[in-house]
Amino acid sequence: xxxxxxxISLTLVLAALALNxxxxxxxPDMPDRLLALDTMYVNSIALIVLLxxxxxxxxxxxxxxxxxxxxxISTVAVCKYLLRGDIIE
Amino acid sequence: MTVFVLLEGVISLxxxxxxxxxxxxxxxMAHLRDFYMRLHGPTKATTLGIGCMLIASMLYFWVTExxxxxxxxxxxxxxxxxxxVTAHLLAKTGLHQKLRHADKTRGKxxxxxxxxxxxxxxxxxxxxxG
Lengths: 89, 130
What we know:
The complex is a heterodimer of chains A (89) and B (130). Chain A is mainly alpha-helical and 89 residues long. Chain A has a single domain (2-84), classed as Helix Hairpins (Orthogonal Bundle). Chain A has helices at residues 2-26, 30-55, 61-84. Chain A starts with a helix and ends in a 5-residue tail after the last helix. The mean pLDDT of chain A is 90. Chain B has one domain (2-116). Chain B is built from 4 helices and no strands. Chain B has helices spanning 2-31, 35-38, 40-65, 71-96. In chain B, helix 1 (2-31) runs antiparallel to helix 3 (40-65) and helix 3 (40-65) runs antiparallel to helix 4. The longest helix of chain B is centred in the N-terminal third of the chain and has 30 residues, at 2-31. The radius of gyration of chain B is 21 Å and the shape is elongated. At the A-B interface, helix 1, helix 2 and helix 3 of A face helix 1, helix 3 and helix 4 of B.
């Protein structure tokens, strides 16, 4: 039962990543691409969680935590750059 | 024995629900028509999906190893705190860049004060700098 759920979930997350790549390449403006990147790091955290469940190990959750923090900080930095034209004033 | 079967069912349900919510969020981001609509998908549905998935992982390792671990809860808490901040900043960026919006999107998207976009740093109105 858990194997089937893992496969279904993996398929859905990969389809979501494909949709994010579509929005990242097509997206007409800069904030669209930024939103696509922001969603992509959340989806990559989901992929890491699925990998941890698949391999039955907890080693990779530190990587998930790092991706969460760095992704948030980089999104905020690019937003500040787009808003003010400068990051540190 | 039946308790473990029940827990496996709960974990599987949470995993499938998380995957479905993540997919729905990304589908909304890819499919909707303007930026202000697209912002709704990832900030709400995807956050809920990743929360479901991390709770499923936490339950799984709790059942298999016998003791709870705070790590997944930490990631969930961090994502739930940072998602609204990111959405707010992205919406502000979209308003600042005056992105095109569909006719169904209501509201006036041109209401940022000049100090918020760094045009001219004005003194705070409460202080009275002259």
